[in-house]
Amino acid sequence: xxxxxxxxxxxxxxxxxxxxxxxxxxxxxxxxxxxxxxxxxxxxxxxxxxxxxxxxxxxxxxxxxxxxxxxxxxxxxxxxxxxxxxxxxxxxxxxxxxxxxxxxxxxxxxxxxxxxxxxxxxxxxxxxxxxxxxxxxxxxxxxxxxxxxxxxxxxxxxxxxxxxxxxxxxxxxxxxxxxxxxxxxxxxxxxxxxxxxxxxxxxxxxxxxxxxxxxxxxxxxxxxxxxxxxxxxxxxxxxxxxxxxxxxxxxxxxxxxxxxxxxxxxxxxxxxxxxxxxxxxxxxxxxxxxxxxxxxxxxxxxxxxxxxxxxxxxxxxxxxxxxxxxxxxxxxxxxxxxxxxxxxxxxxxxxxxxxxxxxxxxxxxxxxxxxxxxxxxxxxxxxxxxxxxxxxxxxxxxxxxxxxxxxxxxxxxxxxxxxxxxxxxxxxxxxxxxxxxxxxxxxxxxxxxxxxxxxxxxxxxxxxxxxxxxxxxxxxxxxxxxxxxxxxxxxxxxxxxxxxxxxxxxxxxxxxxxxxxxxxxxxxxxxxxxxxxxxxxxxxxxxxxxxxxxxxxxxxxxxxxxxxxxxxxxxxxxxxxxxxxxxxxxxxxxxxxxxxxxxxxxxxxxxxxxxxxxxxxxxxxxxxxxxxxxxxxxxxxxxxxxxxxxxxxxxxxxxxxxxxxxxxxxxxxxxxxxxxxxxxxxxxxxxxxxxxxxxxxxxxxxxxxxxxxxxxxxxxxxxxxxxxxxxxxxxxxxxxxxxxxxxxxxxxxxxxxxxxxxxxxxxxxxxxxxxxxxxxxxxxxxxxxxxxxxxxxxxxxxxxxxxxxxxxxxx
Length: 811
Ligand code: BGC
Ligand code: NOJ
Description:
- The chain is α+β, with helices and mostly antiparallel strands.
- The chain has a ten-stranded antiparallel sheet, with helices on one face. Strands 6, 7, 8, 13, 17 and 18 form a six-stranded antiparallel sheet that branches. Strands 22-40-41-45-42-43 form a six-stranded mixed sheet.
- Strand 4 and strand 5 form a beta hairpin.
- Helix 8 (359-369) packs parallel to helix 20 (720-732), helix 12 runs parallel beside helix 14 and helix 14 (585-593) runs antiparallel to helix 15.
- The chain is globular, with a radius of gyration of 28 Å.
- Bound molecules: beta-D-glucopyranose and 1-deoxynojirimycin.
- Beta-D-glucopyranose (BGC) is lined by residues 483-484, 499, 636, 645-646.
């Protein structure tokens, strides 16, 4: 069952009912100022950091779900309704929500009045624009009252939901010419305030939520709205909010628009005040002037659209399968951009107060968005590297506002360092910018202790070399990619963190996944050394990689598949000898991606085992059999009920590792089948089961042990976005950036006869037409570029601004 449809020509998902199985959201903003917006206009805003600079309030875990947002109440006679249906939930005569690239629109109607609400954050602007357009479609003159509502958050979203003895006394606002200014804590240590304006004189306002709603009411029954009169309250402590009242008279057929701005301003210390207790409103007024008219709003929307036209033209496929096209050309790159901006901080599953930016997560996200915004990728790489220690270990997370590592989680996740090499290599291949390797970058966030990025990468590599366990495999530390495989934790007391309890420095527990990563990613460093003329280092590193490959074959293979790990007592994990957790997905994916066992058939066996044991109709589960009981030697993965999360859930993040691995052994049909099982566009028809948004990936789909098998959780902020983009664009469609050009190496279903990839690469345009006359899955018979045959499958780098026609014949 579907709840909407894709409109590919406008790059929108059109939601046809407000009653989706879960709130289906979108993101507004591209640089500093962001908003989350659901299909009922719920959500919130923040500036740069969802925890430390939260602008509007949102109560997670609320009843009803998704309460609080940008609300416009329209009072038309005795009927009160909202364009997004919530919060009043008056049944509408029509409703439509369109989530597009960085904007959302609602078009609804009730009793002959239609409302269109457009929400977006203009490029380079520190505020969200809401344009509400009302149109009288009846034959009578209509006079309606419109009440807006936003609720302020007292900046630090964590304090805001914990420290009520203080918070209930600190809230402060000012109101001038109908603009509500939120200035809590501005009188002391803050240099910023927020404002909420509307572009016409108001007929009333409110800023104290309890008075606006009535003490015992929810957002669905505000006293002020139902009485039709604002109370003109000035908040003093409690819960400050911002509401305007505007009375609008519309002739039959007439249309009028109101433009609301939620903005954020920062001021230098010396310019904070106009007078005692009166804040300096100059910057806010300048922002308000920028969007006083519909023409200004239209121009900014146009600029936003053009920006997305450009971003989405960088990799484009023309292919018969429209679902693949919609994922590759629209929604997957869009999700990659959102994960770049948000990391894992703010979604409807991430509260914005927990994790900041993850070292591992942000490094992997780079793989998916580096072609879209290489300049910002460069900055991100250096920020991430700055949270690395001299010994190559690193903070697992850092806060975007301070760019400092989080001490409460610390380091010791021994896969982390390698992802920095992977992310940097992807950046250099995309851009050819080797200069990044020489950039001086702090260790431990200390600007006085720096090393070049190349030295950081060496430290990453050596961290594995210097931390091997009894079998010569890499020590796992607190965890590797699987945050919940906590082999050194051994926690038996509720409340202890699986990840930070126990020691990070266990010298026995080893990870076959990290070994596979080392063999797959390590060669990137070897290549960089060679290109820098550091031949000795290149050779030494290559020896380490070769030795690790042998170690995996000797101690990391279990007959039919790769082992997963050894625990702190030296016992095997992911082995046929185990009762539960006999086989895990991660090491099968990474070891085959590394090419281990490809020559002697062990890789093929491993992937067949994945197919036979781990795969189900909704994707590949993380391990089998699921853990039925808690094992303190394994940690959090065995704490989840069978079928969910890291206990045999379908992790959409590492399913693509298997897709890519399948292309390594040449099974394009298998790779694409696996792609279709989890790609959201292919799951749209089962939205009632899947429940999350059908336009973006979720982190996890419940696996075959779960009673809710097929149900997705944790949409949007997941490495899934980047890895699926890599799998389809580079491994299956087969166009991938390399140091010296674009490599073309498709691995596709035999039934595909042709498709075209248009790829911008270092400023030149490559139109790559691939035909498959013999119906093969892999292999190239010939390539011509602009009519001339080339040998090999690397299309060279061409001058910026040029266009090249590439004809690839498979066979
Ligand atoms: C989740 C993991 C997540 C980790 C982050 C765990 O509870 O299951 O998926 O990576 O928390 O700390
Ligand atoms: C989510 C985390 O963000 C990611 O870093 C981790 O690899 C997966 N969970 C698996 O545990």
